Structure formats: C-alpha cells, structure tokens
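Handout, page 2. Input:
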Amino acid sequence: MAGTRPEAVKIAPLLLDLRGRGLAPVLVATGQHRAMFGEALAEFGLRADHDLGAMAATPDAVVGPLLPMLADVMRQQAPDIVVVQGDTSSTLAGAMAARYAGVRLAHVEAGLRTGSDDPHPEEMHRKMVAQMAQLHFAPTAAAAAALAAEGVRTGVHVTGNSGIDALLLMQARLAGDAQLAASALAPVAQVPTGRPWILATVHRRENQGARLMGVLAALAELAGEAEVIVPVHPSPAVSGPVRAVLDGRAHVHLLPPLTYAPFVALMGRAALVLTDSGGVQEEAPALGLPCLVLRGATERPEGVASGNARLVGCETAAIVAAVRTVLGNPAERARMGRPALLYGAGGAAAAINCELLRPVPAASAQTSESWSRSDGHHRSSRAERR
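Output:
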C-alpha cells in the first residue's frame, strides 16, 4: 500500500517485478496525494486496485480515518504480507492496520535516521514502523546499522533503494523514446540555455515559514546569475510564499508540479539541484547532479560522505555561497558531479520480492496465525496476494 507521489514511484518497480513473475499484487492507494499519486503510477503503466481517498491537510487527519479503512481492506483481501514504503502518514497507518489485522508486515526503505527530531513527523514514523515490521528492507548498510542500534537485528536485508530502480527504468524509457523525451522537456522548452540551470524543490513541513523565506530570498538572488527553475509544490503553505516572492521575477521559472518523466528529464539538464527532498538526494548522485541539501541533517548520509551532496541549510547567505562555489569552481563541480550509485544499481525490487516470496518459517507462521486468531479474525493464506 502507498499514498504519496514518492511512494508511487518507489513501489512501482516492486509491482512490475511481481507481475513479471506472474503474480497479482494488490495495491491499495490511501489517497494522501490524490492526483499526483495516480499520475506517477500511470507513467509506469500501473493503477491502484483500491483508492481510499483519505487526502487531508495534516498527518493526524490522515492516520485516524485510514486505520479502520485499511484494516477492513486487509481483512477482506486476506494478504500473506502487507508492504509499506517510506515514512509518511500512509506508511504509519498501513503498518498499524496490518498489525491490528494480524498480517505480517514488510517495510521498504527501512532504517533511515537523522538522529534528531527533524524531519517531523517522518523520523517518528520510521522508528514506530521499525518496531512493528517483521521484514526490514534497508537501502544501505548504514540504514541496517541504524536498525541494529535500535535492537532490530532480525529480518533485516540490505537491498538498495527501489527509487533507483525507478530512475533507471525512466532513464531507459526517455533514452529510447524520442517523443516521450521531447514531451518530458516541454515544460522547460522556453528556459534560455545560455546560463546554468538551477533546479530547486522545497516542500518539507519543517522548512515552511521562516526557513522557506530564507530559501526563496536565495533563489531570488541567484536569478541574477542562473536560470532558476522551481516546480511549485501544491501545498498552500509552500505555493503561496513561492509565488509571492518569485512570480514574475526575471530568470525564475515557476512550473506546476511535475510528473516523474519530466522531473527526471529536468534533472538530466540541470547544473545543480537545491532540495529538501529525500528521493532527490538519492537520484542526484546517480545522475551525476551536484546536490545541495536544504536541511541541517539528512537520513541519507551516503551522498554527503561521497561528496555528491552537501548540507547547506536554509539561510540565504549559506545557500548563495554554496551555489556560487559549485558553479564557479570547475573542480568542485566535477567532484560533486561524479555519478555514483550509492543507493543501489537497479536490482532492489527483485531483491525485495525474493525475500517477500520466501516461504515463512513455521514458527513465524504460527505466531502470526495465533495473533490473528487472538484478535478474532482468522485469515486464510492467499499466496498470490502480496
């Protein structure tokens, strides 16, 4: 199950791989990102089997209504295992519903930690799901080590990140389909090419307010020396300030939210990316795109350690100085732009699915069955539904 656009992108390779094995996975969409979720799935030729329509303005307003709806779907479908991805409100609700329904739980992208309260509530969600899941698919060894430090040592598998699978799939499609590639770049067709392109994405809850204003002031200043391209997040808390500060400014290009193919194509053309997104921190190194992270801490330290990414925070002066260092120093730009598959090489979905399809040890199956019966809900085994 999944609910947000990034979750759609990262769950798509698992669904495609399962279908390639002749299986029929059931995808439940929570509705947390209503339109963007469906659009992202459609780019992979997929659609949800169930849409619960639980879009809401705040995390608590998502989790509460979702719990009984998801538990009801799980009892009707009687899956052998429920798979949740990432760290959103949909992830937490799905994990809790699975445990209430007495169903085994797998967590894709497990073990990511900043070691601080930020990002909130995502860091909290990750830790809670880790205590509920039986299978933990960690994208890197560092993520697996973070789980071990919290006492989670069984059922942990280092698989790479399925987001890289999705990126490589989309890159191949763009390279092999000239019409798709042209369509993907249509949103930036009018952006001049004589100056560097800076791609900026900002949307995180903790970066709203004063932090967002610091980022926007930096983008306004950087427009004096580069083309600044901003896909505007639909949240009013983001889109309102973005348009108030940047709309109509020379060399700033405000775009509507992009689907996955256009965003991948745009990353391939940009000189660097400024972002607070977790997924972009994974994708940028794979593309050889220097990445400046608009946060003080990251749950993806591999990019910082390799030199492909740098934490710059949200203060205007720090952002401007970091961008000028990258754009003005060829050696630094080359160092940060070395392609690096830090989060897998495209085999994460297959590795995850091999573990999902592995027969459950008798002791584990007995424990799960006992849990289900003790809650008054006996569930039958349906191996084709995962």
